[in-house]
Amino acid sequence: MITLDNVHKSFGPKQVLRGVNLHVPKGESMVIIGGSGTGKSITIKSILGLVTPDQGKVIVDGEDVTHAGIGADRDAFLARFGMLFQGGALFDSLTVWQNVAFRLLRGALKRPKAEAREIAIEKLRRVGLTPDVADLFPSELSGGMQKRVGLARAIAAEPEIIFFDEPTTGLDPIMSGVINDLIREIVVEMGATAMTITHDMTSVRAIADKVAMLHDGVIQWTGPVAEMDASGDPYLEQFITGSAEGPIEAVR
Amino acid sequence: MILLAPLRYLGQLTMAVLATIGQVAIFAAQGISHIFRPPFYFREFLTALLQIGWLSLPVVGLTAFFTGGALALQIYAGGARFSAEAVVPQIVAIGMVRELGPVLVGLMIAARVTSSIAAEIATMKVTEQIDALVTLSTHPMKYLTAPRVLAALIVVPILVGIGDIIGIYGGFVVGTGQLGFNPASYIKNTVNFLEMSDIISSLIKGCAFGGIAATMGCYFGMNSGRGAQGVGEATKSSVQAAAVLILAANFILTSVFFSQ
Lengths: 252, 260
Description:
Chain A: This is ATP-binding cassette domain-containing protein. Chain A: Keywords: ATP-binding, Nucleotide-binding, Transport. Chain A is α/β, with parallel strands linked by helices and about 250 residues long. In chain A, a hairpin with a 2-residue loop joins strand 4 and strand 5. In chain A, helix 5 packs across helix 6, helix 6 packs parallel to helix 7 and helix 7 packs parallel to helix 8. Chain B is mainly alpha-helical and about 260 residues long. Chain B contains nine helices and no strands. At the A-B interface, helix 2 and strand 6 of A face helix 5 of B.
């Protein structure tokens, strides 16, 4: 469903992606792991067109979307995606339900306000929030609740493909567990294709069908999550065990 | 080589300034073109009208009132040197309407509106809210820039008109209360002296300054660097750029309207 073919991206003199090759089949949950600053976010952003690759191709459903411009086609393309941002990225001028229903209140998917609100409340319930948070503002919520609202917003329009950018960063272990379970359940029940970025190994084991390790701008290793522990790849082993010794330099 | 260093620096600086001017021009053109192309975000537009227009009224009113009053005192004192005290109403009117009204309102809008737009959009950028907008099929230029620029283009001339009137009233209060002018003849002199072209030039200036103020806020917000420092830098640069551009535009517009 999603294919990255030799994707390169530099920012000034800094080469972030040096030829990423990755294939995510429909309905699969792919988790990309790797240290901070290895280009995990850039990889996802290049699929969405938030970042344009310098070289290489991004193919979604057989269609080359590398240089997709703006316009009606792009709106339709983006409507197939949902994304949970690292910090939630909730709009703080809007209430919780307006955030969740953002897509349903404007543009191609616009519907009556009451209906949009109903869907928003249903999605909030799906992520374990009660309807009374609907009229609060994002700043009135805790970090974990903001993540849940972000999750509800990402799934509000029933996307085919969902991206999760560090879904558990900054949460306590129990809340991380709750979010991991939620992501797994939602992906399975919606039958969506999922791509998650994380460096939390608990998350990886809870969410992933397949794992890809990004290091030094390329995918070092990719395979099913079950084979991860016996990969024999020194980079992956070092990352899983969190060891300071190994091929990955601890000081970057 | 060492002798060439200052030249190289000057060259780099010139190139950087020219590049920024180009980017700002493209940004402004895009912002304006999005005003005319659907989808339109009416709610955002109304919020911007309220923020830029209604909530700026107190500061605009106070600024204009005090300036009009001070202007009356200065003209009276200055005019007394060649027994021309009687021209206070006329000069206050022309000074407020042609120059001080639009410029002061423009600068107040730069301080109040440009800074808040830049800080808000920069924070949105830093917290990935702009990226989130895109993933939700919403064009940031349409959703954030177009409503604010349109609102400023419409509402700042109105603020300038109100500022002109309150400024003249400030002169009137000082003139009749302190300087001994007859209220009826003060008003009569003001009304007779002002021409339609004065008022129109004032409003056109307001429109231009409003456009500059909102566009600068949006431009620097959208191009903000990372973190709290990036937001601070964006806010500072936006106000600086807006203020300087407003004063430069004022000079250009004045020379277009009034130099014969």
